[in-house]
Amino acid sequence: LNILNHKLQKANERLTEEIQQKHYESITDKLTGLYNTPYFNVRIKAESEHAKRYNHPLSLMFIDLNNFKSINETLGYDEANKIIADIGKVISESIRKVDSAFRYSSKQFAIILPETKDEGCITVSNRLIEKINKSITDTPPKSPASLAISIGIDQIKQDTDHEKLLKNAKDAAAKARSDGDNNVVIFSV
Are 58 and 121 contacting, i.e. CB atoms less than 8 angstroms apart? Predict the structure, then answer.
């Protein structure tokens, strides 16, 4: 009976590990190691509701890679993927443990920053721009196209839901992109 219990316990442990691994794989972008978009949709809703309920600050950064299409066409898919993976690593290493980073689309990222106001986001944004530019220049480009990022920021308000927060951050990123390379814009009405 002890042997049977031991075998069942070991089988249960293996099954638990497999379930945890499958869960991790289901919420993670394979290329960057950041969370994926479906998980972003779950987290932004939960974080927004929590922040509003307890009147806590919550910010969302939306990051867009400028000129990425031309880099992809010039360097090729594999080299472009290496750049995306490097950027994912830089983002992951540049945020706090309480923050959550996501690969939102092929060339877009999002970062949820609980307990963070605009000033804190500006600090993180400037750090990201500096580190991403350094990361890119450390590996000499084979392309004349230059990669830059645009960052849009919005902070949750009582009359803002998670969808509006995302739209505002995206709009701010679009404004940052139209203002030129490596810009940060905080959404304002």
Answer: no
Rounded Cα distance, 113 and 111, in Å: 6
Residue whose entry in the numeric block shows the structure tokens 């709009």: 171
Among 101, 105, 82, 83, smallest CA distance to 91 is for 101
Distance of CA 162 to the CA centre of its chain: 16
- The answer to whether residues 105 and 37 touch, using CB atoms and an 8 Å cutoff, is yes
The radius of gyration of the chain's CA atoms, rounded to the nearest angstrom, is 19
Q: Which pTM was predicted?
A: 0.90
How many Cβ atoms from other residues are within 10 Å of residue 61's Cβ? 27
List residues bridging with 153 in a β-sheet: 61, 186
Helix (H) / strand (E) element for 114: namely: strand 108-114
Sequential pLDDT tens for the chain (189 residues) = 789 899 999 999 999 999 999 999 999 999 999 999 999 999 999 999 999 999 999 999 999 999 888 888 888 889 999 999 999 999 999 999 999 999 999 999 999 999 999 999 999 999 999 999 888 766 555 444 578 999 999 999 999 999 999 999 999 999 999 999 899 999 997
Q: What is the DSSP letter of 28?
A: B
The β-bridge partners of 65 are: 149
Tell me the H-state helices in 101-161.
118-138
* Contact between residue 132 and residue 149 where contact means Cβ atoms under 8 Å apart: yes
Q: What is the DSSP letter of 35?
A: B
